[in-house]
Amino acid sequence: MLLTWKPPMEISVIWVVGFCVLMVAHGAQASSHESSRNLQETDQPYRTGYHFQPPKNWMNDPNGPMYYKGVYHLFYQYNPYGAVWGNIVWAHSVSYDLVNWVHIDHAIYPTQPSDINGCWSGSTTILPGEKPAILYTGIDTKNHQVQNLAVPKNLSDPLLREWIKSPYNPLMTPIDGIDPDLYRDPTTAWQGPDKIWRVIVGSQIDGHGRAILYRSKDFVNWTRIDSPLHSSGKTEMWECPDFFPVSTRSTNGVDTSSQDKYTKHVLKASFNHHDYYILGSYKPANDNFSVETNFMDSGMDLRYDYGKFYASKTFFDRAMNRRILWGWINESDSESDDIKKGWSGLQSIPRTILLSKTGKQLVQWPIKEIEKLRFKNLSFHDKKLKSGSVLEVPGITASQADVEVSFELPNLEDAEILDPSWTDPQLLCSQKKASVRGKLGPFGLLAFATKNLTEQTAIYFRIFRSNHNYIVLMCSDQSRSSVREELDKTTYGAFIDMDPRHENITLRSLIDHSIVESFGGEGRACITARVYPKLAIHEQAYLFAFNNGTSNVKISRLNAWSMKNAQIVSTKNRRKPQL
Ligand SMILES: OC[C@H]1O[C@@](CO)(OC[C@@]2(OC[C@@]3(O[C@H]4O[C@H](CO)[C@@H](O)[C@H](O)[C@H]4O)O[C@H](CO)[C@@H](O)[C@@H]3O)O[C@H](CO)[C@@H](O)[C@@H]2O)[C@@H](O)[C@@H]1O
């Protein structure tokens, strides 16, 4: 039973002792008193077990993730005083493995005229000689957005607990036509072969989303370049841009300053509540970014996630040669629900991100470290999922689970014809919800389901035929996720770039009390949903596979695991900045 389940003694002890040794060695004390898990009681059915959360209060964007001297760092936008947005500081947590975390003192909080009204999003850059530097947006005395620098006080502290702000702050200001309300979120900087640093800042100028480009020789004096790195007339304010290379020939990640004939560049911008990206080729000599497609310009609407996922940020993990993506997953309940819960906001499970084999899009997959939380496996293969059937996946904690399933389609010719007007996958999913019978599909998983299916969150596929091609639609239908009425239950959808004639259709779902992160087609389409079941909580939650199409499908294999709690603890007497 999940409520009483505790991780095996040896795992908690090894991890907490390991981290305490590190913390004590560096003059800090860990305490589980403030453990976020203490809140996971019957009145807190939506608190997660293995997603990153502070013990309480509001959290939004992930900031400045990095790896330094054997320790992963995550900073995040945080309100120390409540469960709604405001009083924003950079909270700071550290980890050995990106799964188990210790919350330590806030890294950056308002102290200077250049950030006295808030320390907003930004990024870290590792400067030569292993010296991390943070560029972040400060809200100054006039409530203008400006860009500031902070560096660690003590580089020999792997926890980097104290940060000193540059006396030269602000380093970049909203002049020459920049709107001081639309100028924020500096990226990780990158160095060209000429040793000059570049950074972009998100903005909107003349109604167009824009990445303002700056250059610097010393990371302190920054010059604005007349031409932006990129801008787009079909978008408005770009929040939290990210710009990084991906390899065209390897699954390894690439350092942000690297670039050669085997790399493409990704530009991500956050707008319209989603994280969109485009691919292109970047030449540092003239800072030219020539794009393959533009934002909102073609049928190719490339997004990191087609559900809830915003203000994301990547970093290059040198230790494991991979690029990792974090994203903020906000709530779908009301502000008054958040105040009652005492918290708001999750971070996604960190995902590795790389270019797909076709080179046309990115693919994402949960970091492999998360698999160490798996226990109690249920596995079967080659099971017919008859038309109209529902099959329980028994024996696991269905409210805190990791499921991988692969579907084989013996009767592809049964696929419905795709109407050419069906170009919007989200609209199509909301018209063809899980309860709407089709031919090949809907088939997939029912998460957070009550035994009688009154409550259910359906993650499923439908297959269509268009001329001689097959189209795979992936949906996440929250319309029956809770008998509570006052929730946002939007249905999400994405097309997956795959040919079901040549490969099975796979789905992996990470289920954690109020979140389902789903990866379709080996990570080619991701959909994250927040749900708040009233009945399907803790041991009353069940997991099913289902097929509501008229054609049979086969589960070629299914693997499901219960997931242990991650150890997420706080240091004793975490300092609360005086505002
Ligand atoms: O913390 C500041 C940093 O966060 C970013 C990106 O997330 O700016 C967020 C912003 O608004 C926060 C706010 O919500 C509004 O914006 C969200 C995301 O853009 C929307 O999803 C939401 O619907 C909007 O209401 O969050 C609170 C509750 O949702 C609400 O009170 C806030 O307005 O912060 C700015 C100040 O509010 C606003 O201009 C931004 O949109 C990043 O850009 C900042 O560095």
Automatic annotation (TrEMBL):
SUPFAM superfamilies, per database record: Arabinanase/levansucrase/invertase, Concanavalin A-like lectins/glucanases
Domain Glycosyl hydrolase family 32 C-terminal span(s) in chain numbering: 369-562
Gene3D superfamilies: Exo-inulinase, domain 1 (2.60.120.560), Glycosyl hydrolase domain, family 43 (2.115.10.20)
Annotated GO MF terms: beta-fructofuranosidase activity
PROSITE patterns named among the record's database cross-references: GLYCOSYL_HYDROL_F32
GO terms, biological process: carbohydrate metabolic process
Protein location: Vacuole
Organism: Salix koriyanagi
Protein name stated in the entry: CELL WALL INVERTASE 1
Location (main, coarse): other
Stretches assigned to the Glycosyl hydrolase family 32 N-terminal domain: 51-366
Keyword Oxidoreductase listed: no
Catalytic activity: Hydrolysis of terminal non-reducing beta-D-fructofuranoside residues in beta-D-fructofuranosides
